[in-house]
Amino acid sequence: MHTSQHLLPALLETRLDLLNPLLVAHESPPCYVQVPRGMTPSEIASVQNEATRLVFEGRKVQELDQGHEQKETVRILDSGRSVGKAFPDDR
What we know:
two-stranded antiparallel sheet
């Protein structure tokens, strides 16, 4: 749930230019997202599909410690993107 609070707003901003979306999550449902405009069904499906795709990639999720340099070796994917070093280049 915590990771989705970062993933969903990031997708809304980067894919649909919906700036400053607010995900309101509680211990129990309902959770909701506040966006600056309405979304079309195709926009909702697009963001949902992208989030699902990213989740099922099985990416490692970790806290970033900005005060210390990362000492472990950074794995590089076939695409050339580094894994585990920092936020993706488009974020």
